[in-house]
Amino acid sequence: MDEQTQKKTLTSLENHARGVVEGKAKEEAGRVLIRMKDRFSTLFNHDSESMPRVWTGKEDIRSITKTAHSAALKLLSVMAAIRLDDNVDNIENTLCSALLDTKGIASVTKWGSTTSDPLASSTWDKVPPNKILITPVQCKILWRQYRAETEYCVTQAISAQEANKRSNNWLPPPWAIVALIILGFNEFLTLLRNPLYVGIIFVGYLMLKALWVQLDISGEFSHGVLPGIISLSTKFIPTIMSLLKKLAEEGQAAANNNPQSTNASASKSLPNTTSPLLTASSTVTSSANGTKEE
């Protein structure tokens, strides 16, 4: 192969390779929103060791969310243009300053200025138009849609964290305890004067404790407030019926055992009650026999 044919062949292969890469890049750019949400879900719901996160209340949700958003935004900046010639651009910095910098967004909103918005354009700086896959305006629209669809995950994590904190800390604040002591002094004296109320309260506490264990309220509310309420509403009446059934069975068993104990005690006391009668009859018989002998 001569030199001219070799150059022509290499140029043809290079153009073909560029066409394959650009076609694949354009195809993936159309699915960039799905990729961004997958990247966010992976980093938000898994720790550094790829283990699922358990929202126990010690995690910094704000920091985790910011890291996941940064990774998704970096993916968007990579997919925004084709870079086969190693050209340097500032797409990532522009997106970060416009979409992640809350101070810059607040200043633009405050002054109502749209001329300084770096994303109010259809081209990227230092990027040829034929290499652009996603325009700045499209990036802004995609980011708004991405934030709306990922906000639910953040809300669920915050709810799970708050539910876990409430389940681990049942004591009220100190000021509430002091208020209860001051305002409930008269009721406390009433309980001291009527011990029957203490028994009723104790029985009520036992019933509530049994319901708490049977319904697993803390476990139900760990998945969220609304799912917990729905699940408890379906389990409340069957649980009450089950507890009443158990109480009835225990009462029936106690009633069945009482006649046996009564019969046993009566049989034990029968010889004691009949022994004086037997003694008296034997005495009368012996006296009669003595009279006849005389």
Automatic annotation (TrEMBL):
One of its GO terms (molecular function) is GTPase activity. Residues 269-294 have a biased composition (Low complexity). Residues 254-294 are annotated as: Disordered. The chain crosses the membrane at residues 170-189, 196-215. The keyword Nucleotide-binding does not apply. Pfam families: Sey1_3HB. Residues 1-250 form the Sey1/RHD3-like three-helix bundle domain. GO terms for biological process: endoplasmic reticulum membrane fusion. Residues 254-268 have a biased composition (Polar residues). Keywords: Membrane, Transmembrane, Transmembrane helix. InterPro entries: RHD3/Sey1, Sey1/RHD3-like_3HB. GO terms for cellular component: endoplasmic reticulum. The keyword Nucleotidyltransferase does not apply. PANTHER family: PROTEIN SEY1. This is Sey1/RHD3-like three-helix bundle domain-containing protein. It comes from Gossypium mustelinum (Cotton).
